[in-house]
Amino acid sequence: MAKKLKIKSPSLYNRISNLEDLKNKISLYGWKQLEEKMLLSIVGESGYEAIKCMAYAFYDYATENKGIFEAMLWYNKYMIEEGNQVTHNTFDILFKILRKQNLSDETINHFIRTLRVFLEGYVLLVNHQAFGHPLSIQKSFDFSLNILINGVKNMEGK
Prior knowledge:
By secondary structure, the chain is mainly α. It has eight helices and no strands. The protein has one domain: Tetracycline Repressor, domain 2, CATH 1.10.357.10. The protein has helices at 2-5, 9-15, 19-41, 47-64, 66-74, 81-99, 105-127, 137-153. Helix 3 (19-41) packs antiparallel against helix 4 and helix 6 (81-99) packs across helix 7 (105-127).
């Protein structure tokens, strides 16, 4: 690896102890970058529009940084405190946005989990060129995101 990075092995080992450490560092790097992009995407936005902005920021980051995104999914970010913290702020912001929509805490948590599954799964399929139909992938993403948003809107007040 040091040869590919064009650095000396001792320099590499000063920063990375083993392959698991490398995976962890790449994963944390990716989640921190993604968190920043998602949070910046909602400046000036509120409600469901803010949720959409965060989803598009996720999609853009994950499809523009395929290798880092793959590495982000290798490592369980909840196993160490730093990994847990890196996504806590994002989920907390999502929770606060959705709480203003008159949704129960349980509904909010289910929606956040559903949104995460949709985003990670959809991007994995895009990144692996797994869609064979000629329909626009972006239009399908928009369509799916709107279904999720409209579905949770129907849960308001319940």
